[in-house]
């Protein structure tokens, strides 16, 4: 782990504790003495996102986080809310044991959570994710939200949400396939 300040290659751990699904380590650079924090978490391998154009790309938590964060910008949400949504979705995806998941499914998972959380964030996310090209589509979503319509409307090319029961079933089936790989490190 390189020091984020001077790029020196070695540091010592001065504190280490378990957090949620990982380990938080406080480190000190052996060269410049700066302190920084790393998080280690186990990550199952091989979850791929199927894009609209059928291309596959490895699931990227940061990408998911960025999308949610943009939608929630300047909204009155408790700190940590955005990370929590991303964590929940990531955990749900990995627990499902699926190897591939359509991007539309992930988008719907985000929308489902934002809907009950913050309507403006929901609309913002929908406008990017659904690629609204005109005001009519936007109005439809806003109207549906205003009228308290329960479901999110799905264009025919999108898959419905996976039910919790289905996810649990998949998780049981495929648990043995889930392996782990090297930890992911994040500097804060
Ligand atoms: Zn340093």
Please specify the SSE layout and strand pairing.
Elements: E1 11-19, E2 22-29, E3 35-44, E4 48-50, E5 56-58, H1 61-72, H2 81-95, E6 100-102, H3 103-117, H4 119-129, H5 135-146, H6 164-174, E7 180-187
Parallel strand pairs: 4-6
Antiparallel strand pairs: 1-2, 2-3, 3-7, 4-5
This protein binds zinc ion.
Question: Summary?
Answer:
The chain is α+β, with helices and mostly antiparallel strands. It has helices spanning 61-72, 81-95, 103-117, 119-129, 135-146, 164-174; strands spanning 11-19, 22-29, 35-44, 48-50, 56-58, 100-102, 180-187.
**Strand/helix succession:** EEEEEHHEHHHHE
> Can you list the ligands bound to this structure?
zinc ion
Q: What percent strand?
A: 15-25%
Strand order of the largest sheet: 1-2-3-7
Number of distinct helices: 6
Number of strands: 7
Radius of gyration: 19 Å
Average predicted confidence as pLDDT: 80
List unreliable stretches of 5+ residues.
Answer: 150-161, 173-188
Global shape:
elongated
Helical content class? 40-55%
Largest sheet report: 4 strands, antiparallel
Question: Which secondary-structure class do the elements indicate?
Answer: alpha+beta
* Terminus-to-terminus distance: 13 Å
């Amino acid at each position: 782990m390189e020091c984020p300040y001077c790029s020196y290659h070695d540091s010592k751990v001065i504190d280490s504790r378990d957090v949620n699904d990982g380990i938080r380590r406080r480190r000190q650079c052996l060269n410049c003495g700066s302190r920084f924090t790393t998080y280690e978490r186990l990550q199952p391998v091989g979850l791929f996102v199927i894009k609209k154009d059928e291309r596959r790309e490895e699931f990227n938590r940061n990408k998911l986080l960025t999308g949610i964060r943009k939608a929630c910008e300047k909204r009155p949400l408790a700190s940590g809310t955005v990370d929590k949504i991303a964590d929940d979705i990531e955990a749900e995806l990995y627990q499902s044991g699926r190897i591939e998941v359509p991007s539309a499914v992930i988008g719907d998972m985000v929308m489902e959570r934002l809907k009950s959380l913050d309507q403006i964030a929901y609309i913002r996310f929908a406008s990017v994710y659904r690629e609204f090209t005109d005001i009519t589509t936007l109005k439809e979503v806003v109207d549906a939200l205003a009228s308290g319509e329960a479901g999110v409307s799905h264009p025919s090319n999108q898959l419905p949400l996976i039910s919790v029961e289905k996810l649990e079933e998949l998780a049981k089936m495929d648990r043995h396939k889930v392996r782990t790989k090297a930890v992911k490190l994040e500097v804060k």
